[in-house]
Design brief:
This protein is α+β, with helices and mostly antiparallel strands. It is about 40% helix and about 15% strand.
């Protein structure tokens, strides 16, 4: 769990993310930096390469170097966008869609394995790890099999954590920056990013609608495959049920799995019109 503090910047801070990776923040030659973990050295190299592409310059915190599965980056001072006034949150959503438009329009590698991280495997493993013992693991694997059918023809860059909470209005530049890149990957399941961002805005229905309208009018283009709705619905069920189970909300997680094809009609209708 991340704890934001106003204590002296001379004090180091250590926490473990919801994925289970460590982050260490500490002063380094007059600046505050952080070291965070990727899934492996392959993903760390992928993140470094992605952040160095000209199209993504300025959207992320500056990355200095990687070593093995660790990345050393500058700590971004500023306000998390979920704490900003609604007008500024709307500007942040415009920026988030701009970033997603860039990510969802390109790929880095011919093979997704070169990104070093499979988001669906992560969702399945989390669900298996936290599911109640009486639950049949075959049900989870069946959902994973259905979710594994790519909903689109193309692989694209994918960042499932593009949210107001993970976006910071930097003090020094006045620009928005995205933090927490441990789920950054390349995948044909990149449209799950839209589900994650829209879900994070659920407490503010007006902002959720605004986000979906902005994404619908973006330059992102894709070709949906047969069965794409079931694939995305199954993948989102893995995501949502696993989150409930990890937080100890067993009844909510089981309810998601019992009714997994339901919900998110606003997202599905937007995507169907956009292809």
């Amino acid at each position: 769990m991340k704890i934001k503090s106003n204590s002296s910047e001379l004090m180091p801070a250590l926490w473990k993310s919801k994925v289970g990776h460590l982050t260490l923040v500490f002063p380094f030659f007059g600046r505050r930096v952080k070291i965070y973990q990727a899934e492996n050295s392959t993903q760390a190299d992928f993140i470094q390469k992605a952040l160095q592409t000209p199209e993504l310059a300025g959207y992320f915190h500056p990355l200095f170097f990687t070593f093995n599965r660790y990345l050393l980056a500058e700590w971004v001072r500023g306000a998390s966008c979920d704490t900003l006034p609604e007008q500024d949150q709307t500007r942040a959503i415009d920026w988030m869609v701009e970033l997603q438009s860039i990510l969802h329009s390109q790929h880095l590698y011919e093979r997704d394995e070169q990104a070093g991280f499979d988001y669906l495997d992560h969702l399945e493993n989390r669900l298996l790890r936290h599911a109640p013992p009486e639950m049949d693991p075959d049900m989870i694997r069946q959902l994973r099999s259905l979710a594994g059918s790519p909903p689109v023809e193309q692989s694209r860059l994918s960042h499932p954590d593009i949210t107001l909470r993970n976006s910071v209005l930097a003090q020094d530049s006045g620009r928005f920056k995205l933090i927490d890149n441990e789920l950054f990957t390349q995948s044909p399941h990149f449209l799950l990013d839209v589900f994650n961002t829209a879900f994070s805005l659920a407490p503010a229905p007006g902002l959720r609608r605004y986000y979906l309208e902005r994404y619908a009018s973006s330059q992102v283009r894709f070709s949906l495959r047969h069965g794409w709705e079931s694939s995305l619905a199954a993948a989102w069920s893995l995501r949502l049920a696993g989150s409930h189970f990890q937080a100890g909300r067993l009844d909510e997680g089981l309810e998601v799995l019992r009714h997994w094809p339901e919900g998110n009609q606003d997202i599905l209708e937007m995507l169907a019109k956009k292809q």
